[in-house]
Amino acid sequence: MLILLLFALIGCSYGIQLDNTNKGNTETEIRLKNLETLVYRQSLLLSEQSNRIQNLETTVAFQRSEILELKTNLDSVKHKQSRHGEKLSVLKKLLQKKSLDNDFLKEKTHPETPNYMDKTESRTIEENIPVNRYQRLLIGNPSSDRPPAFYAYMSKNENNHGPHHTLKFDIVVTSTDRAYSPLTGIYTVKTSGVYVFTFNIRLGCHAYGSFELIQNADAKGSVLLETSDTCDTQHATAVVVLDTKQGDVIYVRTHSSYGGSGDITSDDKGRPTFSGWLISH
């Protein structure tokens, strides 16, 4: 009887353990399935985020391309505006010169002989030609048997020159055709042909700058000076040969984007000059 009872207890204990084992396996399977579901969802989210990142990278690349194109267009517009500004400046100077010519025609008095003309040359001017204070700046006694030529220099320092600034060589030594105006610094071609033009610039202490010879609105020659590291003066000269037409304007200016800083120096030891002469019709 005791033996039977012992077997019964053992059987009950084994059954309880088996039930617990089955329950444990079932819970583990449920947890594994939940984890698989969670991993699957995370995988979907990562895939979606990866697609979004790729789309954003594509958008950024496209926007960079558009920005580059806009910058290129902006540079082109700025260049065109600069050219238009140069042409407008030339037109203003031409209008100013035209106004001076009109004043000359209207003037009815005879002014004193300009101090930059010698007495021999001044006597050759006919007494019936009216000359006002503006026209006296157009120097020389025009003569058909003398080729066009001019020479002028800067009599005093020019301080703090900026970019895109026309230089005025105010003392005229020679002007056979009255085509150079020290008022504007412009030589206006009256006789078409090939000319030699040259200019010389002198900079003082701790200065720098680039200077251009301009035909109408186009730069035809340039020089660069640099004395910013030393307290010394330097000269630079440019010589340009140009094929010109009647009405062309020639002048010297500071560079449109590198005007420089410091003084353009002029004294009896060295002066900035501007000159030109016809070599061939």
Automatic annotation (TrEMBL):
One of its GO terms (cellular component) is extracellular region. It holds the Pfam family C1q. Residues 46-73 form a coiled coil. Keywords: Coiled coil, Secreted, Signal. Transmembrane segments: none annotated. Residues 1-15 form the signal peptide. It is found in: Secreted. Residues 143-281 form the C1q domain. It comes from the Eukaryota. InterPro entries: C1q_dom, Cerebellin_Synaptic_Org, Tumour_necrosis_fac-like_dom. This is C1QL. The lineage of its organism: Eukaryota, Metazoa, Spiralia, Lophotrochozoa, Mollusca.
